[in-house]
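Example 3.2
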Amino acid sequence: MHEIDEDEFGGVWAGISTLLVALVALGVFVFTTDPINSGGVIASVALAIFGLSQTLAPRIVPWFKDLDDRVVGLFWILVGICVAAIAVAASPTIGRFGGGLVIGAAFVLYGCFTALGR
């Protein structure tokens, strides 16, 4: 089995504390602002995903040793599509959404090149 140092990813307690901070921040952005601050909600959800990955990293990391380029490329394509979708959904509150679409397209392009082995 793959040995992993718990300090490398922050460990379970760091992940749980990050999840709690993200939930508190999400509550603040939803309940204390008159129009819901979608930028803050998106940042809170991203922080929650990071906390979840910190918590689950010791169990998930051994799976990544055997992944081929197509799976990694598909992951980056999905990340790019999600970034572009979040940019479009948050555009009325944030203002300009062109940057998010460009970043999403860049991730999709990187995922395509990775899947093709280039």
